[in-house]
TrEMBL record:
Location of this chain's protein in the cell: Cell outer membrane
Gene Ontology CC terms: cell outer membrane
UniProt-listed SUPFAM superfamilies: Outer membrane efflux proteins (OEP)
Cross-referenced PANTHER family: OUTER MEMBRANE CATION EFFLUX PROTEIN, OUTER MEMBRANE PROTEIN-RELATED
Molecular function GO terms recorded: efflux transmembrane transporter activity
Protein name stated in the entry: RND transporter
Coiled coil: none
Keyword Lipoprotein among UniProt keywords: yes
Topology class, membrane: Lipid-anchor
Pfam families recorded: OEP
Keyword terms of this UniProt record: Cell outer membrane, Lipoprotein, Membrane, Palmitate, Signal, Transmembrane, Transmembrane beta strand
Organism: Pseudomonas vranovensis
Signal peptide: 1-21
Length: 484
Protein backbone atom coordinates (compact mmCIF):
# COMPACT_ATOMS: atom_id res chain seq x y z
CA UNK A 1 0.00 0.00 0.00
CA UNK A 2 2.88 2.36 0.70
CA UNK A 3 4.10 2.58 -2.92
CA UNK A 4 0.54 3.25 -4.12
CA UNK A 5 0.07 5.88 -1.42
CA UNK A 6 3.34 7.53 -2.46
CA UNK A 7 2.06 7.84 -6.04
CA UNK A 8 -1.01 9.84 -4.98
CA UNK A 9 0.78 13.24 -4.76
CA UNK A 10 2.35 12.60 -8.17
CA UNK A 11 -1.03 11.68 -9.65
CA UNK A 12 -2.62 14.78 -8.18
CA UNK A 13 0.15 16.99 -9.56
CA UNK A 14 -0.30 15.50 -13.03
CA UNK A 15 -4.05 16.02 -12.89
CA UNK A 16 -3.52 19.58 -11.66
CA UNK A 17 -1.63 20.31 -14.86
CA UNK A 18 -4.50 19.06 -17.05
CA UNK A 19 -6.78 21.62 -18.69
CA UNK A 20 -9.82 20.51 -20.63
CA UNK A 21 -11.03 22.23 -23.77
CA UNK A 22 -9.21 23.59 -26.83
CA UNK A 23 -6.05 25.67 -26.43
CA UNK A 24 -6.26 29.09 -28.04
CA UNK A 25 -4.03 30.04 -30.95
CA UNK A 26 -4.13 33.48 -32.58
CA UNK A 27 -6.06 33.33 -35.88
CA UNK A 28 -4.42 34.21 -39.18
CA UNK A 29 -5.51 37.63 -40.46
CA UNK A 30 -4.55 36.63 -44.04
CA UNK A 31 -2.79 39.95 -44.58
CA UNK A 32 -1.61 40.63 -48.14
CA UNK A 33 2.08 41.23 -48.82
CA UNK A 34 1.41 44.83 -49.88
CA UNK A 35 -1.42 47.36 -49.79
CA UNK A 36 -3.53 46.61 -52.91
CA UNK A 37 -4.72 50.21 -53.32
CA UNK A 38 -1.17 51.50 -53.64
CA UNK A 39 -0.63 49.40 -56.75
CA UNK A 40 -3.26 51.34 -58.68
CA UNK A 41 -3.34 54.89 -57.29
CA UNK A 42 -0.99 57.90 -57.21
CA UNK A 43 -0.71 57.57 -53.43
CA UNK A 44 1.98 54.94 -54.07
CA UNK A 45 4.39 57.80 -54.74
CA UNK A 46 3.65 59.31 -51.30
CA UNK A 47 2.92 56.36 -48.98
CA UNK A 48 5.90 54.51 -47.55
CA UNK A 49 5.84 50.98 -46.13
CA UNK A 50 7.85 52.10 -43.11
CA UNK A 51 6.72 51.99 -39.45
CA UNK A 52 3.51 53.93 -38.96
CA UNK A 53 3.87 57.36 -37.39
CA UNK A 54 2.46 57.03 -33.89
CA UNK A 55 2.09 60.78 -33.28
CA UNK A 56 0.67 61.34 -36.75
CA UNK A 57 -1.05 64.62 -35.83
CA UNK A 58 2.37 66.24 -35.50
CA UNK A 59 2.89 65.71 -39.25
CA UNK A 60 0.41 68.58 -39.80
CA UNK A 61 2.86 70.93 -38.03
CA UNK A 62 0.06 72.71 -36.16
CA UNK A 63 0.95 73.35 -32.48
CA UNK A 64 -2.66 74.18 -31.60
CA UNK A 65 -3.88 70.85 -32.99
CA UNK A 66 -1.20 68.95 -31.07
CA UNK A 67 -2.09 70.80 -27.85
CA UNK A 68 -5.80 70.06 -28.25
CA UNK A 69 -5.11 66.36 -28.78
CA UNK A 70 -2.90 66.20 -25.69
CA UNK A 71 -5.61 67.87 -23.59
CA UNK A 72 -8.35 65.65 -25.01
CA UNK A 73 -6.37 62.51 -24.13
CA UNK A 74 -6.23 63.68 -20.50
CA UNK A 75 -9.73 65.08 -20.00
CA UNK A 76 -12.19 63.36 -22.33
CA UNK A 77 -15.07 61.79 -20.41
CA UNK A 78 -15.68 58.93 -22.87
CA UNK A 79 -12.05 57.92 -22.42
CA UNK A 80 -12.36 58.11 -18.65
CA UNK A 81 -15.47 55.91 -18.79
CA UNK A 82 -13.55 53.35 -20.90
CA UNK A 83 -10.72 53.51 -18.36
CA UNK A 84 -13.19 52.80 -15.56
CA UNK A 85 -14.47 49.76 -17.46
CA UNK A 86 -10.88 48.55 -17.79
CA UNK A 87 -10.35 48.88 -14.04
CA UNK A 88 -13.54 46.88 -13.48
CA UNK A 89 -12.32 44.05 -15.72
CA UNK A 90 -8.99 43.95 -13.91
CA UNK A 91 -10.73 43.80 -10.55
CA UNK A 92 -12.95 40.98 -11.78
CA UNK A 93 -9.90 39.09 -13.03
CA UNK A 94 -8.30 39.47 -9.60
CA UNK A 95 -11.41 38.05 -7.95
CA UNK A 96 -11.48 35.03 -10.30
CA UNK A 97 -7.75 34.38 -9.91
CA UNK A 98 -8.16 34.18 -6.14
CA UNK A 99 -9.69 30.72 -6.62
CA UNK A 100 -6.23 29.41 -7.56
CA UNK A 101 -4.99 29.90 -4.01
CA UNK A 102 -6.29 28.58 -0.68
CA UNK A 103 -8.75 30.73 1.20
CA UNK A 104 -7.93 31.28 4.88
CA UNK A 105 -10.33 32.73 7.46
CA UNK A 106 -10.04 33.53 11.12
CA UNK A 107 -13.18 33.89 13.23
CA UNK A 108 -14.35 34.05 16.77
CA UNK A 109 -17.55 34.54 18.67
CA UNK A 110 -19.44 34.48 21.90
CA UNK A 111 -23.07 33.56 22.52
CA UNK A 112 -25.31 33.01 25.50
CA UNK A 113 -27.96 30.37 24.84
CA UNK A 114 -30.36 27.93 26.42
CA UNK A 115 -31.31 24.62 24.84
CA UNK A 116 -34.62 22.81 24.99
CA UNK A 117 -34.97 20.15 27.66
CA UNK A 118 -36.89 18.03 25.14
CA UNK A 119 -34.66 18.62 22.12
CA UNK A 120 -30.97 18.09 21.35
CA UNK A 121 -28.44 17.49 24.06
CA UNK A 122 -27.62 20.49 26.15
CA UNK A 123 -23.84 21.07 25.99
CA UNK A 124 -24.00 22.73 29.41
CA UNK A 125 -25.13 19.48 31.05
CA UNK A 126 -28.07 21.20 32.74
CA UNK A 127 -30.77 19.44 30.67
CA UNK A 128 -32.04 22.70 29.22
CA UNK A 129 -32.86 24.10 32.67
CA UNK A 130 -30.49 27.07 32.53
CA UNK A 131 -28.64 29.25 30.04
CA UNK A 132 -24.96 28.82 29.25
CA UNK A 133 -22.10 30.73 27.64
CA UNK A 134 -20.28 29.48 24.55
CA UNK A 135 -16.86 30.85 23.50
CA UNK A 136 -15.49 29.88 20.06
CA UNK A 137 -12.46 30.65 17.94
CA UNK A 138 -11.75 29.13 14.50
CA UNK A 139 -8.97 29.11 11.92
CA UNK A 140 -10.35 27.74 8.62
CA UNK A 141 -8.63 27.01 5.32
CA UNK A 142 -9.98 25.52 2.10
CA UNK A 143 -8.67 24.96 -1.42
CA UNK A 144 -10.19 23.43 -4.51
CA UNK A 145 -7.92 21.05 -6.40
CA UNK A 146 -8.08 22.31 -9.98
CA UNK A 147 -7.87 18.79 -11.40
CA UNK A 148 -9.42 19.55 -14.79
CA UNK A 149 -8.25 23.12 -15.25
CA UNK A 150 -11.62 24.74 -14.62
CA UNK A 151 -10.15 27.58 -12.58
CA UNK A 152 -7.19 27.97 -14.93
CA UNK A 153 -9.55 28.30 -17.88
CA UNK A 154 -11.62 30.83 -15.93
CA UNK A 155 -8.49 32.91 -15.29
CA UNK A 156 -7.49 32.55 -18.93
CA UNK A 157 -10.92 33.83 -20.00
CA UNK A 158 -10.69 36.68 -17.47
CA UNK A 159 -7.28 37.67 -18.87
CA UNK A 160 -8.84 37.78 -22.33
CA UNK A 161 -11.70 39.93 -21.03
CA UNK A 162 -9.12 42.36 -19.64
CA UNK A 163 -7.58 42.51 -23.13
CA UNK A 164 -11.04 43.21 -24.55
CA UNK A 165 -11.42 46.16 -22.16
CA UNK A 166 -7.90 47.40 -22.90
CA UNK A 167 -8.59 47.43 -26.63
CA UNK A 168 -11.99 48.99 -26.08
CA UNK A 169 -10.18 51.87 -24.36
CA UNK A 170 -7.67 52.04 -27.19
CA UNK A 171 -10.52 52.17 -29.70
CA UNK A 172 -12.18 55.02 -27.79
CA UNK A 173 -8.85 56.85 -27.69
CA UNK A 174 -8.27 56.29 -31.41
CA UNK A 175 -11.73 57.66 -32.24
CA UNK A 176 -11.12 60.60 -29.90
CA UNK A 177 -7.85 61.52 -31.67
CA UNK A 178 -9.49 61.32 -35.09
CA UNK A 179 -12.58 63.26 -33.99
CA UNK A 180 -10.51 66.00 -32.38
CA UNK A 181 -8.34 66.37 -35.47
CA UNK A 182 -11.38 66.19 -37.75
CA UNK A 183 -13.31 68.89 -35.87
CA UNK A 184 -10.25 71.12 -35.78
CA UNK A 185 -9.70 70.75 -39.53
CA UNK A 186 -13.38 71.51 -40.15
CA UNK A 187 -13.12 74.58 -37.92
CA UNK A 188 -10.15 75.96 -39.85
CA UNK A 189 -11.94 75.14 -43.12
CA UNK A 190 -15.01 77.11 -42.01
CA UNK A 191 -12.79 80.02 -41.00
CA UNK A 192 -11.10 79.87 -44.43
CA UNK A 193 -14.54 79.88 -46.06
CA UNK A 194 -15.48 82.88 -43.91
CA UNK A 195 -12.37 84.68 -45.14
CA UNK A 196 -13.22 83.83 -48.76
CA UNK A 197 -16.81 85.00 -48.28
CA UNK A 198 -15.72 88.29 -46.72
CA UNK A 199 -13.25 88.78 -49.55
CA UNK A 200 -16.04 88.21 -52.08
CA UNK A 201 -18.29 90.53 -50.10
CA UNK A 202 -15.74 93.30 -50.58
CA UNK A 203 -15.63 92.48 -54.30
CA UNK A 204 -19.43 92.64 -54.45
CA UNK A 205 -19.46 95.98 -52.64
CA UNK A 206 -16.84 97.28 -55.05
CA UNK A 207 -19.07 96.18 -57.95
CA UNK A 208 -22.03 97.95 -56.30
CA UNK A 209 -20.06 101.18 -55.94
CA UNK A 210 -18.93 100.84 -59.53
CA UNK A 211 -22.49 100.38 -60.82
CA UNK A 212 -23.72 103.34 -58.71
CA UNK A 213 -20.97 105.53 -60.11
CA UNK A 214 -21.80 104.48 -63.67
CA UNK A 215 -25.49 105.17 -63.01
CA UNK A 216 -24.63 108.72 -61.97
CA UNK A 217 -22.57 109.08 -65.14
CA UNK A 218 -25.54 107.87 -67.16
CA UNK A 219 -23.82 104.82 -68.60
CA UNK A 220 -25.55 102.22 -66.39
CA UNK A 221 -29.12 101.43 -65.47
CA UNK A 222 -31.02 101.01 -62.23
CA UNK A 223 -31.15 97.31 -63.07
CA UNK A 224 -27.36 97.08 -62.73
CA UNK A 225 -27.50 98.74 -59.30
CA UNK A 226 -30.30 96.44 -58.15
CA UNK A 227 -28.43 93.37 -59.35
CA UNK A 228 -25.25 94.53 -57.59
CA UNK A 229 -27.20 95.22 -54.36
CA UNK A 230 -28.78 91.78 -54.52
CA UNK A 231 -25.34 90.22 -54.98
CA UNK A 232 -24.04 92.03 -51.88
CA UNK A 233 -27.00 90.83 -49.80
CA UNK A 234 -26.68 87.28 -51.15
CA UNK A 235 -22.99 87.01 -50.25
CA UNK A 236 -23.49 88.65 -46.86
CA UNK A 237 -26.29 86.18 -46.09
CA UNK A 238 -23.73 83.38 -46.09
CA UNK A 239 -21.91 84.82 -43.08
CA UNK A 240 -24.41 84.01 -40.25
CA UNK A 241 -24.56 80.32 -41.22
CA UNK A 242 -20.78 80.08 -41.39
CA UNK A 243 -20.36 81.89 -38.07
CA UNK A 244 -22.89 79.56 -36.44
CA UNK A 245 -21.01 76.55 -37.83
CA UNK A 246 -17.76 78.00 -36.45
CA UNK A 247 -19.27 78.34 -32.96
CA UNK A 248 -20.70 74.82 -33.21
CA UNK A 249 -17.30 73.30 -34.03
CA UNK A 250 -15.60 75.22 -31.21
CA UNK A 251 -18.22 73.83 -28.82
CA UNK A 252 -17.71 70.33 -30.26
CA UNK A 253 -14.00 70.57 -29.47
CA UNK A 254 -14.85 71.87 -26.01
CA UNK A 255 -17.08 68.85 -25.38
CA UNK A 256 -14.26 66.50 -26.38
CA UNK A 257 -12.05 68.28 -23.85
CA UNK A 258 -14.82 68.13 -21.17
CA UNK A 259 -15.07 71.92 -21.16
CA UNK A 260 -18.28 73.97 -20.80
CA UNK A 261 -19.79 75.70 -23.86
CA UNK A 262 -17.86 78.66 -25.32
CA UNK A 263 -14.83 77.96 -23.12
CA UNK A 264 -12.52 77.57 -26.15
CA UNK A 265 -13.71 80.61 -28.08
CA UNK A 266 -10.93 82.84 -26.82
CA UNK A 267 -8.21 80.54 -28.18
CA UNK A 268 -9.93 79.21 -31.32
CA UNK A 269 -11.99 82.13 -32.62
CA UNK A 270 -8.91 83.74 -34.14
CA UNK A 271 -8.56 82.31 -37.69
CA UNK A 272 -5.52 80.19 -38.49
CA UNK A 273 -4.36 78.33 -41.60
CA UNK A 274 -5.92 74.97 -42.28
CA UNK A 275 -3.67 72.03 -41.31
CA UNK A 276 -2.20 70.49 -44.44
CA UNK A 277 -0.52 67.08 -44.53
CA UNK A 278 3.10 66.58 -45.50
CA UNK A 279 3.82 65.19 -48.94
CA UNK A 280 5.08 61.78 -47.83
CA UNK A 281 3.68 59.64 -45.03
CA UNK A 282 4.34 56.19 -43.59
CA UNK A 283 1.56 53.59 -43.37
CA UNK A 284 3.49 50.50 -42.26
CA UNK A 285 3.02 47.05 -43.75
CA UNK A 286 -0.22 45.00 -43.89
CA UNK A 287 1.04 42.26 -41.57
CA UNK A 288 1.26 44.78 -38.69
CA UNK A 289 -2.40 45.75 -38.88
CA UNK A 290 -3.66 42.86 -36.72
CA UNK A 291 -1.11 43.79 -34.04
CA UNK A 292 -2.07 47.47 -33.97
CA UNK A 293 -5.72 48.04 -34.81
CA UNK A 294 -7.80 47.97 -31.56
CA UNK A 295 -10.96 46.44 -33.02
CA UNK A 296 -8.99 43.50 -34.46
CA UNK A 297 -7.15 42.98 -31.18
CA UNK A 298 -10.46 43.20 -29.33
CA UNK A 299 -12.09 40.62 -31.61
CA UNK A 300 -9.12 38.29 -31.10
CA UNK A 301 -9.39 38.67 -27.31
CA UNK A 302 -13.12 37.93 -27.46
CA UNK A 303 -12.36 34.77 -29.43
CA UNK A 304 -9.75 33.84 -26.80
CA UNK A 305 -12.27 34.31 -23.97
CA UNK A 306 -14.88 32.22 -25.81
CA UNK A 307 -12.34 29.44 -26.41
CA UNK A 308 -11.30 29.33 -22.74
CA UNK A 309 -14.96 29.22 -21.66
CA UNK A 310 -15.34 25.89 -23.49
CA UNK A 311 -12.76 24.40 -21.12
CA UNK A 312 -14.69 25.71 -18.13
CA UNK A 313 -17.89 24.11 -19.44
CA UNK A 314 -16.16 20.77 -20.05
CA UNK A 315 -14.59 20.74 -16.58
CA UNK A 316 -18.06 21.04 -15.03
CA UNK A 317 -18.76 17.46 -16.22
CA UNK A 318 -16.00 16.08 -13.96
CA UNK A 319 -15.83 15.71 -10.18
CA UNK A 320 -14.45 18.53 -8.08
CA UNK A 321 -12.49 18.05 -4.87
CA UNK A 322 -12.09 20.70 -2.18
CA UNK A 323 -9.68 20.26 0.71
CA UNK A 324 -10.79 22.00 3.89
CA UNK A 325 -9.59 22.16 7.43
CA UNK A 326 -10.65 23.82 10.64
CA UNK A 327 -8.71 24.31 13.86
CA UNK A 328 -10.20 26.15 16.79
CA UNK A 329 -11.08 26.48 20.43
CA UNK A 330 -14.47 26.04 22.11
CA UNK A 331 -15.41 26.29 25.77
CA UNK A 332 -18.31 27.12 28.02
CA UNK A 333 -16.18 29.20 30.37
CA UNK A 334 -13.91 32.04 29.36
CA UNK A 335 -11.29 30.78 31.83
CA UNK A 336 -11.12 27.47 29.91
CA UNK A 337 -11.01 29.05 26.43
CA UNK A 338 -7.23 28.93 26.11
CA UNK A 339 -6.71 25.52 27.62
CA UNK A 340 -5.49 22.47 25.68
CA UNK A 341 -8.71 20.60 26.37
CA UNK A 342 -10.71 23.35 24.56
CA UNK A 343 -9.09 22.53 21.23
CA UNK A 344 -11.01 21.06 18.31
CA UNK A 345 -10.25 20.40 14.66
CA UNK A 346 -11.74 18.97 11.46
CA UNK A 347 -9.98 18.14 8.21
CA UNK A 348 -10.90 16.24 5.11
CA UNK A 349 -11.78 16.45 1.43
CA UNK A 350 -15.18 17.24 -0.05
CA UNK A 351 -16.12 15.54 -3.32
CA UNK A 352 -18.79 16.80 -5.69
CA UNK A 353 -19.72 14.56 -8.62
CA UNK A 354 -22.43 15.70 -11.06
CA UNK A 355 -24.70 12.74 -11.87
CA UNK A 356 -27.88 14.14 -13.36
CA UNK A 357 -28.36 17.79 -14.31
CA UNK A 358 -31.24 17.44 -16.76
CA UNK A 359 -29.11 18.48 -19.74
CA UNK A 360 -27.94 21.74 -18.14
CA UNK A 361 -24.20 21.00 -18.44
CA UNK A 362 -24.52 19.73 -22.01
CA UNK A 363 -26.57 22.80 -22.94
CA UNK A 364 -23.97 25.14 -21.44
CA UNK A 365 -21.22 23.37 -23.39
CA UNK A 366 -23.13 23.67 -26.67
CA UNK A 367 -23.73 27.34 -25.89
CA UNK A 368 -20.02 28.00 -25.31
CA UNK A 369 -19.07 26.19 -28.52
CA UNK A 370 -21.62 28.23 -30.49
CA UNK A 371 -20.30 31.43 -28.89
CA UNK A 372 -16.77 30.49 -29.97
CA UNK A 373 -18.00 29.98 -33.55
CA UNK A 374 -19.66 33.37 -33.47
CA UNK A 375 -16.48 35.01 -32.10
CA UNK A 376 -14.40 33.37 -34.86
CA UNK A 377 -16.77 34.64 -37.54
CA UNK A 378 -16.83 38.09 -35.96
CA UNK A 379 -13.02 38.18 -36.04
CA UNK A 380 -13.07 37.42 -39.78
CA UNK A 381 -15.70 40.11 -40.27
CA UNK A 382 -13.70 42.74 -38.37
CA UNK A 383 -10.52 41.98 -40.32
CA UNK A 384 -12.35 42.06 -43.65
CA UNK A 385 -14.04 45.34 -42.75
CA UNK A 386 -10.63 46.79 -41.86
CA UNK A 387 -9.18 45.91 -45.28
CA UNK A 388 -12.21 47.46 -47.01
CA UNK A 389 -11.96 50.59 -44.87
CA UNK A 390 -8.27 51.11 -45.64
CA UNK A 391 -8.80 50.50 -49.34
CA UNK A 392 -11.69 53.00 -49.42
CA UNK A 393 -9.87 55.71 -47.50
CA UNK A 394 -6.77 55.42 -49.70
CA UNK A 395 -8.94 55.93 -52.76
CA UNK A 396 -10.70 58.82 -51.04
CA UNK A 397 -7.35 60.43 -50.25
CA UNK A 398 -6.28 60.22 -53.89
CA UNK A 399 -9.63 61.47 -55.21
CA UNK A 400 -9.56 64.40 -52.76
CA UNK A 401 -6.08 65.38 -53.91
CA UNK A 402 -7.05 65.31 -57.59
CA UNK A 403 -10.21 67.34 -56.92
CA UNK A 404 -8.28 69.91 -54.86
CA UNK A 405 -5.66 70.40 -57.59
CA UNK A 406 -8.30 70.82 -60.30
CA UNK A 407 -10.30 73.27 -58.19
CA UNK A 408 -7.15 75.27 -57.51
CA UNK A 409 -6.81 75.77 -61.26
CA UNK A 410 -10.52 76.65 -61.48
CA UNK A 411 -10.07 79.35 -58.83
CA UNK A 412 -7.10 80.80 -60.72
CA UNK A 413 -9.01 80.93 -63.99
CA UNK A 414 -12.13 82.40 -62.35
CA UNK A 415 -10.01 85.20 -60.85
CA UNK A 416 -8.72 86.05 -64.30
CA UNK A 417 -12.27 85.86 -65.68
CA UNK A 418 -13.60 88.24 -63.00
CA UNK A 419 -10.88 90.81 -63.62
CA UNK A 420 -11.58 90.62 -67.37
CA UNK A 421 -15.34 90.90 -66.93
CA UNK A 422 -15.01 93.92 -64.62
CA UNK A 423 -12.71 95.63 -67.10
CA UNK A 424 -15.03 94.90 -70.02
CA UNK A 425 -18.01 96.18 -68.01
CA UNK A 426 -16.22 99.46 -67.35
CA UNK A 427 -15.49 99.68 -71.05
CA UNK A 428 -19.12 98.90 -71.87
CA UNK A 429 -18.28 95.71 -73.74
CA UNK A 430 -20.47 93.47 -71.56
CA UNK A 431 -23.44 94.02 -69.29
CA UNK A 432 -23.37 93.68 -65.51
CA UNK A 433 -24.98 90.24 -65.59
CA UNK A 434 -21.70 88.82 -66.93
CA UNK A 435 -19.83 90.28 -63.97
CA UNK A 436 -22.29 88.77 -61.51
CA UNK A 437 -22.11 85.38 -63.20
CA UNK A 438 -18.32 85.26 -63.11
CA UNK A 439 -18.21 86.50 -59.52
CA UNK A 440 -20.65 83.76 -58.45
CA UNK A 441 -18.51 81.14 -60.20
CA UNK A 442 -15.40 82.43 -58.41
CA UNK A 443 -17.07 82.28 -54.99
CA UNK A 444 -18.35 78.76 -55.66
CA UNK A 445 -14.97 77.50 -56.84
CA UNK A 446 -13.19 79.09 -53.86
CA UNK A 447 -15.57 77.45 -51.41
CA UNK A 448 -15.20 74.12 -53.17
CA UNK A 449 -11.41 74.45 -53.08
CA UNK A 450 -11.47 75.06 -49.31
CA UNK A 451 -13.77 72.08 -48.89
CA UNK A 452 -11.54 69.83 -51.01
CA UNK A 453 -8.41 70.94 -49.14
CA UNK A 454 -10.09 70.04 -45.87
CA UNK A 455 -11.17 66.71 -47.40
CA UNK A 456 -7.52 65.85 -48.15
CA UNK A 457 -6.53 66.44 -44.53
CA UNK A 458 -9.64 64.63 -43.27
CA UNK A 459 -8.89 61.65 -45.50
CA UNK A 460 -5.37 61.38 -44.10
CA UNK A 461 -6.76 61.50 -40.55
CA UNK A 462 -9.19 58.74 -41.54
CA UNK A 463 -6.32 56.73 -43.00
CA UNK A 464 -4.31 56.92 -39.79
CA UNK A 465 -7.40 55.94 -37.81
CA UNK A 466 -8.11 52.95 -40.09
CA UNK A 467 -4.48 51.86 -39.72
CA UNK A 468 -4.82 51.89 -35.93
CA UNK A 469 -2.15 54.49 -35.25
CA UNK A 470 -2.12 57.06 -32.48
CA UNK A 471 -3.16 55.28 -29.28
CA UNK A 472 0.35 54.01 -28.53
CA UNK A 473 1.78 57.25 -27.01
CA UNK A 474 -1.11 57.31 -24.50
CA UNK A 475 -1.04 53.66 -23.44
CA UNK A 476 0.50 54.18 -20.00
CA UNK A 477 -0.77 51.62 -17.44
CA UNK A 478 -3.67 52.78 -15.31
CA UNK A 479 -3.29 52.96 -11.56
CA UNK A 480 -4.97 49.90 -10.10
CA UNK A 481 -4.37 47.10 -7.67
CA UNK A 482 -1.91 44.45 -8.77
CA UNK A 483 -3.41 41.52 -10.55
CA UNK A 484 -3.63 38.25 -8.65
Amino acid sequence: MKPAFALCPLLLSLLAGCSLGPDFSAPDSHAPAAWPALQETPAASQAQATPLEQRWWESFHDPKLSALIERASQRNLDLQIASARLLQSRALRMSIASEQTPSVDLGGGYSRARNSAEGLNDPSGNGGKSAFNLWQGDFTASWELDLWGRVRRQVEAADAVVEVAENDRRGVLLSLLAETAGNYIQLRAVQSTLAVTRENLEVSRHSLRLSQMRLRDGVATALDVAQASAQVASVEARLPTLEERQAQLINALGLLLAEPPRSLQAELLEPAPMPTPQQRFAIGVPSELAERRPDILQAEAQLHAATASIGVAKADFYPSIRLSGNVGLQSLQLSDFGSWDARRFAIGPQLNLPIFEGGRLRGVLKLREAQQQEAALRYQQVVLRAWHEIDDVLRLYNASQLRRDLLEEAVRQNRIALQTAQQQYVEGAVDFLNVLSVQGALLASQEQWVESSAAVSQALVGLYKSLGGGWQPFSEPLQTAAQG
